[in-house]
Design a protein that fits this description.
This is DUF4177 domain-containing protein. The protein is α+β, with helices and mostly antiparallel strands. It contains 1 helix and 3 strands, in the order E-H-E-E.
């Protein structure tokens, strides 16, 4: 089974890295990662992460 998640990072307090970390703790593995265009003035970074779990 595969799952896609868009990870966004603005700063240490405003991001969704905890969502990705939770999935990794549940046994999901990263299959691929692709950078996506940033937000206004490049302040926010977005990344498409494809995860897989057997």
């Amino acid at each position: 089974m595969q799952k896609a998640i868009v990870v966004q990072y603005y700063n240490d307090k405003k991001n969704n890295l905890s969502d990705l970390n939770q999935l990794l703790e549940e046994g999901w593995k990263v299959v691929s990662q692709s950078a996506m265009s940033g937000g206004e003035m490049g302040a926010t970074v977005y990344s498409l992460v494809i995860l897989e779990k057997n």
